[in-house]
Amino acid sequence: EKEKEKEKEKEKEKEKEKEKEKEKEKEKEKEKEKEKEREEEEEDDP
């Protein structure tokens, strides 16, 4: 029974890690978007 609990905990941890990774990816995407917008603005306004 204890072993099962440990396994569950491990699974939870893995899930958390995946979530963190997803969040990081989202942040990266946001940064890319910001960068694009900035570049476009610079092009529009020399």
From TrEMBL:
Q: Which organism is it from?
A: Plasmodium ovale curtisi
Bias (Basic and acidic residues) = 1-37
Q: Where is this region: Disordered?
A: 1-46
Q: What is this protein called?
A: Uncharacterized protein
Q: Which domain of life is it from?
A: Eukaryota
